[in-house]
Structure formats: structure tokens, C-alpha cells
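Lab meeting tomorrow. Please check the following:
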Amino acid sequence: MSAKDGKMDKFIKAVDKLTDSKGISKLGKTLNKTIDIAGNIISSTAEVTNHQIDERNKRHQFDIKLPDINGLSLDQTKDLFDSIGLKYAFVKVDPDIKLATTKTDTVMKTVPKPKTVLPAGGFVKVYYLDDEGLEESKRILADIIHKKQSRKDSAKALVNKVGHGTAIGANKVLKVSKKLVPHSKRSKKIKDSKDSDEIEK
């Protein structure tokens, strides 16, 4: 008898037990108990889940989604936050070159960011630029533009000075060389040096 035959015999015996009336009834009872247990687990899990959802909804029923208020005036912002029950503080931003063209007394940004969910009575920082900050930002921008222009002008002046100095220097060198060697002799010397170079080769 081979190993396959032994396994087959065991399988046949197991099937015979199941087909026996007692085996089928035991199987049916086991399935019924399993289904009852699974049903109880599912219903108790559903109750726990529903309870947790209800508790979460109770805790967050008064939460507020922070609206995007960038660009609103400070008065409009104050009215809005008072009506929805948020606490707030207005904070002046420091002058910066990027703010030289910004509107004053309007909301630039908020902390936390827009669309953040806050509890009722949550706190929001509202950043804005006032007139003094705008003037300072414009002054900073004007200073930077002036410095850039000064650097450009200095660079141009240096180039002109160097270029002018080079031209004057070259003219002086030519004048000196003409004084040292008269023109007629100079050309003769050049011819003589060429002839001597050719002879040496």
C-alpha cells in the first residue's frame, strides 16, 4: 500500500463520518453556533463603533472651519470672528521689500491657515500691514534701488576710467617709442632684423 492510498483511505473515512447522520447533525450545530457567535460579535462591534461616532460628533459639533479671510479689512474680520465665536489677535507684520505694494489694514495671513478646523472659541492670529509699515517697506525698496543704481554707475565709471587710461597710456607709449627711435631708422632696423633672421635659418 502506497502513501497515496493511505491518504485516500483517511479521506474516505472522514467523508463517511460526515455523511453519517450524527456527523451531519454535529456539523449543522457547529455551523449554527459559529453563525450566532459571528452575529453577536458584529452587533457588539457595531454598537461600540456607533457609540464612538456619537461621542466624536458631540465633542466636535461646535467646531468651526476657519474661512479664508485674506484681503478682508480688519473691521470685516472683527465682525466675522465675533459672529462665529472665534477669539483673535491682530499682529502687525514687519516692513519688508515684498510689502511695498501691499494694501494697508487688510488681512495678509492667518495662523492657523484657512480651512483649519477649530473648536468653538478657538484662537486665530491675524497678520496685517499698517501705514507705517508700508512707508518703511517703500523706503527699504527705494534704498535697494538706489544702491543698485550706485553700483551700476560706479562700475560704468571704473570701466570708463580704465578704458580712458588705457587709451592715454597707449598713446604715450607710441610717442615715447617714436622719440627714442626716429621713424626712418626704425623701419630700417626692422628690415635688418628680418634679413638677419632669414640668414640664420
